[in-house]
Amino acid sequence: MSGPCDDLRVIDLSSGAAGGLATMVLADFGADVVKVEPPGGDPARAEPAAPMWLRGKRSVTLDLAGSADDRERLHSLVRRADVVVASFAPGDAGPAGADYATLSALNPALVYCSITGWGPRGPYARYPADRALVAAKSGRMQAFAGVVRREGPAFPAVRSETHAAAQSALSGVLAALLVRDRTGAGQLVETSLLQGLFPYDLGTLVRNQLARRYPDHFAGDPYAAFSVNTMPTLGYQPVMAGDGRWIQFANLLEHLFHASIVALGLTEQVLANPRYASAPRGLTPDALEEVRNLMLERVRERPAAEWMHVFHENGNVAADYVGTAQEALFHPDVVANGEVVEIAHPRLGTVRQLGPLARLSETPGRASTLYAEPGQHTAEVLAEPPRRVAAPSRANGGAGAGAGRAPRHPLDGVTVLEFATIIAAPLGASLLADLGARVIKVEPVGGGDPMRTLGIGLGAYVGAAKMNAGKESLCLDLKSERGQEVVGRLLERSDVVIHNYRPGVPERLGIGYERARSLQPGIVWVSVNGYGPDGPSAHRPSAHPVPGAYSGGALLQSGGGWPPPKEDALASLDVLREASRQFFRANEANPDPNTSVVVASSTLLGLYARRRTGRGQRIFLSMLGANGYANHDDFLAYEGKPPRQTLDAELHGTEALYRLYPAGEGWVFLSARTDREWAALCAAAGRADLAADARFATAGSRRAHDGALAQALGALFATRPAAEWERELIPAGVGCVEATTQNAGTFFAGDEHMRANGFAVEADHPLWGRYQRWGPMMTFSGTPGRYGPGVLAGQHTDALLAELGCTEAEIADLRRDGVVDSAAPMDLAAARA
After folding, report:
1. What confidence score (pLDDT) does residue 405 get?
2. Cα–Cα distance between 472 and 456 in angstroms, integer?
């Protein structure tokens, strides 16, 4: 069975994981990927994960910097290619003859995707494209302040920005190809590591703006008052079992929390006790901590494996082990769903690694066994006869096929039905709305998506504004007969269904694949849940703390001092409580957005496959698998693989030349790991003595004396303000930026770099009016995105019903009988006055 991309030729001009992963996925799904690298190979081949993201690609070596003949050879390849993916710094592609203007003139049908560190314009455009520098400057590191009890930002362990940039590049390429199918014309797609951080700010950008306008409306909101002493919500409590192994709960919803209490054997002590009857919400502070202590003490009575057996037997307890990425490679559900594969490598032997991004039922991906050494296919590829670029296809059968004119937005004409809650799948659907898809969110009557209740007062609208941006909302009772009639009419008019239910639930709600396909044969039906459709946990619930804990990211983020010794935690409830607090803070919400970007790219794979075949299909992806991709740097195993770099106990970084330092004023993040950067640092700082110190003369000796080097650099950076160090060291070629101690929303809203790149997008919210929302994950030169506001629950109920043919009287009857409704928004009139 052919893959959805097997009509594509992709030229990979990128270096490193972001472009490497994007083109790896294209290769997994059938594309002929030719990696063009300099003589000697891509320097990023030295990364431990490179054997994975180099799979499935042929290699051609060309000296684009020094050879006009090699530049002409590149041009010959591009003339017969469909896609170029590049990672040049702004301005560097032109001298190599590899910029969009040059290559698109040779091939007007070319889709060219540029992945940079900071975006193509603005004051930081030429800063090093280093993930940690971007995180430090933009406020991402500040999000981890308080994981350990010290002042200042903390190093982010999971390479989420790289993961999101890779998925954005993949989504952008597929969306641009869909446009090309309609018009015959290619275009420029741009994304960056900075844009890759946009999904991970779940509220500070909006909250900052609303708190300034309506300060009284955030009084008493626990999310607004988050501090270093904030303990986990009871539903998300990490616990240590009697054998010292940690387990992460993820029971956000009330019925799941109650199931966990039953499974723990605490029904009488908690649920039957009037003092705790409202748990997990509505408890007094003292009562809440009493319940927490009961949970912590109960779990340490038995080994972890016994508890996990109990939770599996219960079936409604969201919980899993805390572990490493290396352990996650053997998770039973990851294995059962084909989310890891084993491939024979010509030098390394068997490499256990990530499998295809998602499971497409009709056009499945396959992790290729091809691994090329640098230049292995140069003669072969250059000798190949001219290849015809893929012609526009009319097989799609969906909206817009054969239109001929450029759509206003990449996904113009595509209708998505979303039946999903909280963050992972809803945010993924919003990413599709940003690309111009019409996304209709079908929410429960009686308040809508539970995400809308996470907060107090106006604070409850903050997260929902992000997760539901750009959509229309209909509140509908799917369990009613008339609700089923309505959803059937919606299915007939839709191209995509996205849901996050456990297996079997969609069928009971009338939105299963067979019914959807009977009403719309070309439907792309996307299932997003914690564990995937197969395996022992397929029917168990999950939420973001589970994949965060199991995939290794949260353990790494907790730092070198976590966990405390088992004996200390068993002997002292205070030690156990502090350890659970630290892990909770480390296991922040990134696993949800890590999944969201995969939801978007997997859906686009399905839409592109439909373009080729005329058929829809089922697509399955799991939070475990998506977070494997986010932890790509360690989600593979082979003999001799270097261990994942750990963080120090204080979460400054990984080594003396790649870490945070307190400056004379503020904080800096330093990235200077090469000999050239080390020499430039010593010269710019006027420290010839450090350059001459035998302990620091070579990379090996610097590693051997890392502690002494960190001490010397700490004393150096303390002599001047952080902003001054950035102004001096960046022009000298040293990666060093001021690490902001403000939240990401402050950077996104106020930094001139955001405005220079068009990343500061405004929209009109139905409740509070004009505001800045998160910016585009990728930009398109020919068909820009569409960036709508968050919507209220049921805001479009009447309009959608009328569009489906309901009369005003019928709509009134449906409302009267509770089949549909709309949530009444809070009144801000008094605050405006």
Report:
1. 84
2. 24
Distance CA 423, CA 466 (A): 9
Instruction: Calculate the alpha carbon distances from 748 to 65, 193, 638, 724 in Å.
Output: 36, 14, 40, 22
Rounded to whole angstroms, the Cα distance separating 63 from 80 reads 20
Please tell me if the domain spanning 415-536+592-627+786-832 has the same topology as the one spanning 653-745.
no
Could you tell me if 199 and 593 are in contact, meaning their C-beta atoms sit under 8 angstroms apart? yes
Q: 3-state DSSP call for residue 291?
A: helix
> Given its phi and psi angles, is residue 397 left (phi above 0), alpha (psi -120 to 50 degrees) or beta?
left
Beta strand 735-739 pairing with 667-671: antiparallel
- Reading the block at residue 368, the tokens are 């290729």
Distance (Å, whole) CA 458 – CA 480 = 32
**191 has which bridge partners?**
115
- The Cα–Cα gap between 319 and 260 comes to 9
Under 8 Å between Cβ of 182 and 402: yes
Q: Rounded mean pLDDT of the chain?
A: 95
- The vertex-740 CA angle with 217 and 669, nearest 5°, equals 155
Total H helices, total E strands in the chain: 35, 27
Q: List beta partners, residue 319.
A: 249
pLDDT at 171: 98
Do 806 and 797 touch, CB atoms closer than 8 A? no
Reference 417, options 515, 504, 541, 544; nearest CA is 515
Task: Return the amino acid letter for 734.
Answer: V
pTM above 0.90, yes or no: yes
For residue 206, the model assigns a pLDDT of 97
Cβ-based neighbours of 105, under 8 Å, separated by 6 or more: none
- Domain boundaries, given as residue ranges, for the chain: 9-201+360-395, 219-331+543-590, 415-536+592-627+786-832, 653-745
Looking at CATH, the fold of the domain delimited by 219-331+543-590 is given as formyl-coa transferase, domain 3 (3.30.1540)
DSSP string, 103-147: HHHH-TT-EEEEEESS-SSSTTTTS---HHHHHHHHTTGGGGTTS
Whether the Cβ atoms of residue 222 and residue 276 lie closer than 8 Å to each other: no
CB 646 within 8 A of CB 561: no
DSSP 8-state assignment for residue 268: I
Contact yes or no for 636/352 (Cβ under 8 A): yes
* CATH fold of the domain at 9-201+360-395: Rossmann fold (3.40.50)
**pLDDT grade, residue 387 (50/70/90)?**
confident
Strand partners, 240: 246
Question: What does the H/E/C string look like for 548-580?
Answer: HHHCCHHHHHCCCCCCCCHHHHHHCHHHHHHHH
Question: Token pair 């597929």 is at which residue?
Answer: 174
In this predicted structure, what is the pLDDT of residue 623? 98
How far apart, in Å, are the Cα atoms of 51 and each of 130, 376, 566, 627, 717? 21, 15, 37, 19, 37
According to DSSP, the residues that pair with 660 across neighbouring strands are 669
**Residue 270, both tokens:** 């908690």
The DSSP 8-state label assigned to residue 638 in this structure reads: -
Strand, helix or coil at 356?
coil
Q: Identify the CATH assignment for 415-536+592-627+786-832 out of 3.40.50.2300, 3.40.309.10, 3.40.50.10540, 3.30.565.10.
A: 3.40.50.10540
DSSP 443: E
CATH architecture under which domain 653-745 falls: 2-Layer Sandwich (3.30)
Instruction: Work out the angle at residue 797's Cα, subtended by the Cα atoms of residues 791 and 801, and round it to the nearest 5 degrees.
Output: 145
Q: Answer yes or no: is pLDDT of 273 > 70.
A: yes
Residue 401: the pLDDT is 42
Question: Whose structure tokens read 């620091």?
Answer: 696
Alpha helices in 232-284 (DSSP H): 254-263
Give 138-181 pLDDT, tens digit per residue. 999 999 999 999 999 999 999 999 999 999 999 999 999 999 99
Q: Do the Cβ atoms of 711 and 696 come closer than 8 Å? A: no
Encode pLDDT of 750-761 as tens digits: 999 999 999 999
